[in-house]
Amino acid sequence: MSSDSQDKKNLIFSSAFEVREVGIVTSVQKFIVIAQGMPSCVSGQMVEFSSGVKGLVIGFTKKEVQILILGSASEIRTGDEVHNKGRFLSLGVGKSFLGRVINSLCEPQDGKGAIEPEDFYPVFRVAPGVMDRVPVDKTLETGTFSIDATIPIAKGQRQLLIGDRLTGKTTVALDAVINQKGKNVTCIYCCIGKTYSNLIKILDVLKTKQALDYTIVVSGVASTTPGEQYLAPYTACMLGEHFMHNGGDVLVIFDDLTRHAWIYRQICLLLERAPGREAYPGDIFYIHSQLMERAGYLRPELGSGSMTFLPIVEIQQGDVTGYISTNVISMTDGQLYFSTPLFNKGFRPAVDLGLSVSRIGSKAQWPAMRAFSRNLRLDYLQYNELVAMTQLRATGLSKEAEACLKRGEAITQLLIQDKSKPAAMEEEIMQLYALSLGILDNLSTSEIRKFKDEFFSKVKDWEPELVTQLRATKEINDPAIEKLRKCLQRYFQKA
User: Which residues carry out catalysis?
Assistant: First the structure.
């Protein structure tokens, strides 16, 4: 027999037969199925019920298999067959997902038709090892002045956004997405357990700011099944890994991991796993840490891609000592703490500079930004302490104290920023240079706001090469400083 005939025979044989294990459903408990049979299955494998609904093997005993339903449980009955084809859960990835809203199984949810994937990636995979990474030192420009200047975030970093409900965590994360326009950064927003109306508002912001073209939205809203909500962050991470392994930069937002922990707690209670602290299962730390470890900056031999995580955790009444919050704090590279009192005072974004930290530090900053923001955080915190000490004293302040108060008021106005209006890094540097000269200390609040709105656009008209040079070199030399000084003189002469 010729080799061509043998190959054709093998092809017919392989297409005619499919190897699979068959189990029988013994019980259905909301979104958990207990089945017998399938002795070769392992956790993380994908199974399919006779009704067509998919499931994920989430545990097993010697006699039973525990399956998390990834769809509607209404079509599954006791006695139904469940098939295990020996495949781990893998889903489609690729550029075709950009601009689309999908669910946890990468199925379109926006009514724009089917999505043709470029490749298939495993949803659960081992994070890159230490030898596959390089130190993070490139700036992720968030567009939020208080973050870029005082708590810089690097590409490949995991920076936690933590705070009470309705303090602006999602807004800051979305501003970071909006600010990636034209910077070759792929953004992925993962919605976990939020209402559908909240997701619609977020999509409206992204569409209005033309940020949806380079963004993938993974929807695990509260109306979906618990299995889909549990899977959502891993799907978002998998989509980002495709771009990272192809040399791209990725920003992933998990909104939020508190609700993800709630979902996993429900799953484990139905599985009758022993509850621990706050009724969470003992492996709640593991499911989040295996997710967070997948962020990083790959070495040049692997394409120099990066994936940055902005996980969001919601707390109650400012208590950061909760089980989930302390877990996620310990596995990230820093946190942005959002303060309810600051938010209510009108200081927005309400990032508490005293409690927020980035373990990467100034390594991730542009040299120009580092030069002018070195003392910004200390000056602001000293101003807050001085205000607290002198709020009951109307007179008798020294000249040094009055100067400190004026400088602090100017810094406060620079830190206050409207939502959905991220600032360019060049703009922030120029504002910091004006602050370093003391020009803003004697201006009123309205004058500082006018300066923030107008000065950068005028510099782009007067000295376009200055802006281009600053973007290219990320440094500011003496000739550039002299040009910027002349622009300041020209602006305030006209003002």
Answer: 359
